Amino acid sequence: MKDKISIRPAKAADVPEINAILNYAVMHTNYNLNTRPRSEEKAVEWFESHMRENYPVIVAQLQGKVIGWASLSHFREYSGYDSTAEVSIYVSADHRHKGIGTTLLTTLITMAEGRYHCLIAVVTDNNWASLALHTRCGFIANTTFREIGFKNNTYIDITFMTKLLK
Ligand SMILES: CC(C)(COP(=O)(O)OP(=O)(O)OC[C@H]1O[C@@H](n2cnc3c(N)ncnc32)[C@H](O)[C@@H]1OP(=O)(O)O)[C@@H](O)C(=O)NCCC(=O)NCCS
Fold first, then answer.
1. Domain-embedded: residue 103
2. Which of 37, 49, 84, 140 is the most core-located residue (most Cβ within 10 A)?
3. How remote is the CA of residue 23 from the centroid of ligand 1, in Å?
């Protein structure tokens, strides 16, 4: 029997698994521009501020284990951007390319409708999976900023992708 993946709001108890998935990308890719893993303490702060400010964090769960997550966050620290939210989405390395990212992102878009006017994804330009995922979900690549990121001794191009909501 095929095991069923469920998508649900994240709980405080999920934070270590969410953080482990994030930190894998931090340590093994240039897709997340942090150069050091996020501490558990910072991850808890991140989760609590999302709950306090009512920004969604959702997880994909399989057999009781978190295998992916997605969230919306405030975009830049200016109130003029309150109508825009930034997407983060991560699927654990051994569960990619099975449609989980698409399910997480479509769920997040539905949650964002009526609440935000614009969603934005900030994607490093070699991240083909993320570019494909956001394009498939209706995001448009607006602009690529040349070499504004730097990680692992390489300057990195960053593409801003947006989707205007109903
Ligand atoms: C980006 C990510 C979330 C996609 O999740 P996923 O569960 O693999 O995505 P899906 O299986 O739903 O596939 C979505 C699209 O990405 C494409 N895709 C997935 N993996 C791919 C790969 N390795 N190379 C090229 N395209 C890929 C799929 O083909 C699909 O597009 P298409 O059907 O139009 O061809 C996942 O690769 C990931 O967690 N990457 C590391 C973290 C990251 O980069 N997060 C995004 C930061 S902006």
1. yes
2. 84
3. 17
Residue nearest to atom 17 of ligand 1 (CA): 129
67 lines ligand 1 (CB under 6 A): no
With a 6 Å cutoff on the Cβ, whether 131 touches ligand 1 is no
- As a whole number, the mean pLDDT across the chain is 96
The token pair that represents 85 in the structure block: 């939210």
Q: Is residue 130 in some structural domain?
A: yes
Q: CB of 60 closer than 6 A to ligand 1?
A: no
pLDDT in tens, 57-72: 999 999 999 999 999 9
* Whether pLDDT at 3 is above 90: no
Task: Tell me how many domains the chain contains.
Answer: 1
* 0.85 surpassed by pTM: yes
Question: Could you tell me the residue range of the domain that residue 45 belongs to?
Answer: 6-164
Query: What is the domain-level CATH number for residue 128?
Result: 3.40.630.30
